[in-house]
Write a structure and sequence with these properties.
The protein has 141 residues and is mainly α. The chain has one domain (2-140). Helix content is 93%, strand content 0%. It has helices at 2-76, 80-106, 112-140. Helix 1 runs antiparallel to helix 2, helix 1 packs parallel to helix 3 and helix 2 (80-106) runs antiparallel to helix 3 (112-140). The chain is rod-shaped and about 110 Å long.
Amino acid sequence: MKKNYFIAAVILLIAGLSFTGCNNKENAKDNVEQANQDMINAQLQFEKDWQQFKSDAELRINENQQKIDDFKTAMKSTSTRFKAKYENEVLTLEQKNIELKKKLNDFKYERKENWEEFKTTFNNDMDALGNALNDIFSKKN
């Protein structure tokens, strides 16, 4: 009789382990599927954020270039002394604007940390350029 109980206990133990093993496999499969979906969602969110960021940055770059072009046009009708004073400064700002455009076009997403760092650095550089442009325009007046 003890032998029958022992055999029944072993059979129940094996059945329980098999059942638990199946659940673990199903849970693992569900976890992998969820992780894949999370990765796809994160990639889609990045793409959306990137397109919005790039669009806004290109708009700001184009606005900066327009300000530079307007300033160059205005410089043509000013005194030689004024031109000599600001010509190099305007060319330097124009070069920085071109470099920002190149930096924007060359960016490749690798990790979220890189994206956040790029975004912060780029915005700081863009703000510095905008402030420099505003400063030079205020000197003009």
